[in-house]
Design brief:
Strand content: under 5%
Order of helices and strands: HHH
Radius of gyration: 27 Å
Shape: flat
Number of strands: 0
Length: 90
C-alpha cells in the first residue's frame, strides 16, 4: 500500500513538473494588456451593477450610506476604547 501511494505521489510530481516546464516571462503592462479578472473584482462589478440598476440610486446616497457605516464603526471603536480605559484605570 505504501509503495502504491509513493508511486502515485511520484507520478503526480512528475506530471506537475512536466506541466510547468519552461519559465514564464514577466513583462510590463502596455496598451494591449488586460487587467486581471479576479473573483473579488467580478463580485464588485456584480454588486455595482445590481445597485446601479435600482432606480433612484445615486452617488449622494452611496456617500451618505458610507459615512453612516463609518460613523457606526467609529462609535463602536470609541465605546470599546472607553470601556477598556475605564477597566485599566480602576
Amino acid at each position: 500500500m505504501q509503495k502504491q501511494v509513493a508511486y502515485q505521489v511520484h507520478d503526480d510530481v512528475a506530471t506537475a513538473a512536466e506541466a510547468s516546464s519552461g519559465p514564464q516571462a514577466v513583462h510590463l503592462a502596455d496598451a494591449r494588456s488586460r487587467p486581471a479578472d479576479s473573483p473579488a473584482r467580478q463580485l464588485q462589478r456584480d454588486l455595482a451593477a445590481a445597485f446601479g440598476a435600482r432606480k433612484g440610486w445615486s452617488v449622494k446616497r452611496t456617500v451618505v450610506l458610507g459615512a453612516a457605516y463609518h460613523a457606526v464603526i467609529l462609535s463602536a471603536l470609541c465605546m470599546a476604547a472607553f470601556e477598556t480605559f475605564t477597566h485599566v484605570t480602576s
